[in-house]
Amino acid sequence: MGKAVEMVELWRGGLLESTHRGHAVLCDEAGQIVQAWGDPDRIIFPRSSCKMIQALPLVESGAADAFGLSEAHLALACASHQGAALHVNMARDWLKDLGLGEPDLRCGSHEPYDRVERDRLICDHEGPCQLHNNCSGKHSGFLTFVKHQKAGPEYVELDHPLQKAIRAATEDVTGETAAGYGIDGCSAPNFAMSIAGLARGMAKFASSDGTGARGRAMQRLTRAMAAHPELVAGEGRACTELMRAMGGRVSIKTGAEAVFVAIMPEKKLGLALKIEDGNVRASEAALVGILSQLGVLDAAHPMAQKRLPAPQINCRGFTTGELRLSEGFV
Amino acid sequence: MGKAVEMVELWRGGLLESTHRGHAVLCDEAGQIVQAWGDPDRIIFPRSSCKMIQALPLVESGAADAFGLSEAHLALACASHQGAALHVNMARDWLKDLGLGEPDLRCGSHEPYDRVERDRLICDHEGPCQLHNNCSGKHSGFLTFVKHQKAGPEYVELDHPLQKAIRAATEDVTGETAAGYGIDGCSAPNFAMSIAGLARGMAKFASSDGTGARGRAMQRLTRAMAAHPELVAGEGRACTELMRAMGGRVSIKTGAEAVFVAIMPEKKLGLALKIEDGNVRASEAALVGILSQLGVLDAAHPMAQKRLPAPQINCRGFTTGELRLSEGFV
C-alpha cells in the first residue's frame, strides 16, 4: 500500500507542532486520474461523504417524484446537518407527509451540534430524538424509497432492497466491487472503496449531462446540494460556508474520519480526499488547498481562511498558531 | 528528523479506517533512553503534560508552604480539570485565601467539559468564567508564587519572574535549552523540548529521593497527582480513570495535541509520547499499550479497555469498530 503524504501542519510559536498525512485523487469525466497524492488505491470508508450516492435510488426509483420531494428535500437527503430547528422541523414534516414518524427512523439519537437547539433541549430537560441525528435527512430519504417500494421497515439491514440498490449504485459509479462494508454511526451500511473509486464517482456526478435516470438523478442531487448549502450542514460548518463561498459552482461533502469530496460540474472533475488520522481540521484545510489551487475557491475568502490558515485563537483571544499546507503538497 | 512510527489504528467492518503515528521515549533514572519509538529528538510542545514542571517554582520557592497549600491544592496546580463544581469551587476558595479573585487570573474562559456544570451555566444564562478554564488550578498556583514573591500581576509574560523560574526548572529537568516557546491555550508560555527531554524530566520526578528543594518538590507533586486523580482531570477522563486503575502507583498527565507523560516511581522510569496528528484517542490508546507492556497497568481493567480497544459505539448502541495497536508497536 502506498504511503500517505504530508498535507497539513499545525504551527505554534514558529515551530511545527502536529502533522497530518493523507491521500487524495482528482478524476476527470472519463474516470481517469488527473492528479493523485499518496495512494489512489487506498481503501477507505467514505462515511457521510457518499450521501449523494446513497440518495441515487431515492431519485432513480421515482420515489422522490412520487412523493413530490423538492430540491430542498434532496439537499437534506445528502446532508450531515447539525440538528438546528430548520433541519429537525423539515425532517419531521417530511416523515409526516409519508405517513410516518420519528420512531420509523433507524438512525438513533445524538446531541445536536447546533448550539441553540442543544441549549433548548438542555434547559427543557428534553433528550435529543432521532430527528436531531445529523443523518435524519438521509434516513428520511431512505424511508421515502421504502414507502414507495413497499419494502420492509428494517431498511438499514444489509439485505434490505434499499441497501442492495445502494450497493449496486455505489459499485456502478465507483467502477469497483465494494471492498467490504462497515456500519456507520447512523447504523446504515457504509461500503468501502478506493479513494480513486470515490473520486471517479464524484467525476461522474460532475460530468453528468442529465440524460437517463442515473444522469438526471446525479444532476438533481448535485444542484440540490449547491442550491441549499444551509441544509447540507449548517451555520458555521465547512460544507455550508465553502459552498456559499464558491457561489454554488461546486458541491462538497464531508465524511467522518476526515473524508471530503468535491463535485465540480464546470470542470467536470471529481475530488476525494482522506486524512489518514481522521482529523477534520486537516481534511478541511487540505480541501481548501486543493480547491484554491484548482481556481474554484478564492483562497483569500474569509470562509476559506477560516480553514486555512485557520488562525488558532486561545481563551483570551490571542492567535497562538495556524495551519499550513505541508511543503510540496499543492 | 526521524520518522514517526505507526502506533494506533481504527478498524471498522474488518478494515483499517484510520492510522495514528507518533513518537515515544522511556527514560531511566540516569536520564538514559531505555526504549524509543520514532524520533526521540523530535521537538514538541509538551502543552499541559508539563504542568508538574511548571509547578516546581510554586513548591521550591516556599510559596506553597507559606500559604498552607494542601496536597489537593498541588494536585489541582498540575491539573487540566474539567470545570466541575469540585474544581471551580476549590480554585475560587484558593484565590480567596490569597486575597485575590477570578479577575486576577490570566487564563481566559472556556465552556467547562463537565456536563453538569456546563448545563447549569446554559440554563442559568451564565457564561463560563476563568475558574472554569481547565488550567485555573495551574494559574492559582502561579498566583500563589506571584503573591509570595511580590511579583507583578502579568504573570504569563515571558520575562515575568515566574516564567523565568519555570524556564529554568524546565531546562534543568529536561537537560536541554528550550528549543523555543509557544503561547498555550491558557496564555502561558509553553517551552518546546525534545520528547527525550520530556521523558528525562519525568524520570527525574520518578526517581526523586525526596532530598533537596527540587527533590522534595518533585516527590510532593508526583504524590499529589496520584493521591487526587479526581482533581487532575475529572470523572470520565483518562488521567483520572487510569491513575485510579493503577492504584496511585503511577502519575500520568495528558497535554493538548496528543501528548502524554507517565511518572513511574516504583520503576524509576519516565515516559513521554506524542501522536503526530494531535488526536487524543490515539495518545490514550498508545499510553495504555505502553503502560500495559511495562506491567504497571492491567490491560484487562475496564478503564484501560475503554481506551484500548475502545469499542466504537454508534447512536443505536451497536459496536461499529475499535482501536488497535499497530503491528510491531509494543
Description of the structure:
Chains A, B: It comes from Tabrizicola oligotrophica. The structure is a homodimer of 330-residue chains. In chain A, α4 (71-77) packs across α10. With 330 residues, chain A is α+β, with helices and mostly antiparallel strands. In chain A, the strands form 3 sheets. In chain A, strands 1, 2, 3, 8, 9, 10, 11 and 12 form an 8-stranded antiparallel β-sheet that branches. The first copy, chain A, has a two-stranded antiparallel sheet with strand order 4-7. A two-stranded antiparallel ribbon of chain A has the order 5-6. Chain A is globular, with a radius of gyration of 19 Å. The two termini of chain A are 22 Å apart. The first copy, chain A, has 14 helices and 12 strands.
Task: Offer a quick outline of the entry.
By secondary structure, chain A is α+β, with helices and mostly antiparallel strands. The first copy, chain A, contains 14 helices and twelve strands. Chains A, B: It comes from Tabrizicola oligotrophica.
Strand content of chain A: 15-25%
Overall structural domain count of chain A: 1
Characterize the overall form of chain A: globular
Write the element-wise H/E pattern of chain A from the N-terminal end onward: EEEEHHHHHHHHEEEHHHHEEEHHEE
Oligomeric state of shown chains = homodimer
Structural class of chain A: alpha+beta
Record field, number of beta strands of chain A = 12
Biggest interface pair, counts:
A-B, 50 and 50 residues
Q: Taking all residues together, what is the mean pLDDT of chain A?
A: 97
Low-confidence stretches of chain A: none
Provide the helix percentage of chain A.
Answer: 25-40%
End-to-end separation of chain A in angstroms reads: 22 Å
Radius of gyration of chain A: 19 Å
Count the helices of chain A. How many?
Answer: 14
Biggest sheet overview of chain A = 8 strands, antiparallel
Pfam family, one (chains A, B): Asparaginase_II
Protein name (chains A, B): Asparaginase
